[in-house]
Amino acid sequence: MEYIILNTGNKMPLVGLGTWNLRGKECVKIVSLAIQHGYRLIDTAQMYGNEKEVGQGILNSGINRNELFITTKIYRISNSYEKAKIAIEESLKNLQLDYIDLLLLHEPYSQGPQMYHALEEAYFSGKVKAIGISNYDENWYQTFIRNCKVIPAVNQVENHIYYQKWKLHELLTKNGTAMQAWSPLAQGMIKLSDQDVLKKIGKKYNKTPAQIVLRFLTQRRISVIPKSKHEIRLIENIDIFDFKLDDEEIKQIRQLDKNDTLFTWTKRF
Ligand code: NAP
Questions:
Q1: How confident is the model at residue 268 (pLDDT cuts 50, 70, 90)?
Q2: Which of 14, 27, 89, 266 could anchor a disulfide with 218, C-beta 3.0 to 4.6 Å?
Q3: Is the CB of 90 under 6 A from ligand 1?
Q4: Considering only CA atoms, which of 23, 168, 119 is closest in space to residue 31?
Q5: Are 220 and 247 in contact (CB under 8 A)?
Q6: Ligand 1 centre and the CA of 121: distance in Å?
Q7: 39 catalytic, yes or no?
Q8: Long-range contact list for 226-230, CB < 8 A, 24+ apart?
Q9: Which of 3, 39, 48, 136 is catalytic?
Q10: Taking a C-beta distance cutoff of 8 angstroms, is the pair 102, 131 a contact?
Q11: Is 163 helix (H, G, I), strand (E, B) or coil?
Q12: What does the alpha-carbon distance between residue 127 and residue 194 come to, in Å, rounded to a whole number?
């Protein structure tokens, strides 16, 4: 596993498990299985309704808590300072944890600054080791950091071959915020195995198109959180650190960028 050092000094794995759409017993099983296969970062959110199952999966894995990096997010139903404070306690309880490694504001909300104030307090008290945001574009981010005490450690955003966000990444890096890619495999909406560039590069390194895409992002020092409910893919998605793309290959993958979202719901921000 490779890591990125956050502005808090803590290290975050470059590959983690996404859990959106994993529910019930299947979620418990996949979280535990992923940890057994070497995953150390698990990404959940109050909005996914699976924090309890993620917590159970962690317990079932038998791993030491301090080896893991657990991320969750609070969202619009906690749209005030007071509600956000309560939400943080709920997440700790649901996950059966006494601290959270990374707590994010799920989306830019007009009440974001006061919600973030509750996150800052949890950070100062040690209940949360790092805090951050999600789905903030350049404008939202620049406004946000002008008004917060703690610069977000992470901005988790849509990032895949059709929406590569080079400009936002540069801005975040300049200000000490790490980028994390959600839907790094485009949620299956792009058929990666149909992409000639990925197939050609994959053949050279004996890797699948999905592995090439995940390597492309992690080589840019962008953390990825692919989700899979299949053991074989869990193994595949973390097996990406034994090769390095060269400059020409990076250039070729960069040319696939359409600089646009695949998810219309993000346009409302
Ligand atoms: P994703 O990880 O890009 O793609 C998941 C899809 O790809 C699933 O259909 C999965 O199918 C398939 N897949 C997984 N590994 C594969 C492989 N090696 N080869 C081919 N297909 C593969 O999409 P995502 O779940 O939307 O995003 C990842 C995580 O980011 C989420 O789970 C969630 O934790 C987070 N997220 C955050 C936000 C936010 O607003 N902050 C938004 C969306 C997502 P199988 O399961 O059948 O293998």
A1: confident
A2: 14
A3: no
A4: 23
A5: no
A6: 31
A7: no
A8: 226/15, 226/17, 226/18, 226/184, 226/185, 227/17, 227/18, 227/19, 227/20, 227/21, 227/22, 228/30, 229/22, 229/26, 229/30
A9: 48
A10: yes
A11: strand
A12: 45
Task: Please write the tens of the pLDDT for every residue from 230-262.
Answer: 999 999 999 999 999 999 999 999 999 999 999
Mean pLDDT, range 119-131, rounded to an integer: 98
Which residue puts its alpha carbon closest to atom 20 of ligand 1?
Answer: 210
Task: Take atom 4 of ligand 1 and give the residue whose Cα is closest.
Answer: 187
Write the CA distances from 38 to 52, 69, 246, integer angstroms: 21, 12, 26
**pTM over the 0.85 mark:** yes
The protein residue with its alpha carbon nearest to ligand 1, atom 2, reads: 226
Q: Which two tokens stand for residue 114?
A: 């006061």
Task: Find tokens 């698990």 and name the residue.
Answer: 42
Average pLDDT score over residue span 156-185? 98
Q: SS3 of 126, please? A: coil
- Name the E strands within 126-177: 131-134, 154-158
Spatial CB neighbours of 5, under 8 Å, sequence gap ≥ 6: 11, 12
Q: How many residues are there in the chain? A: 269
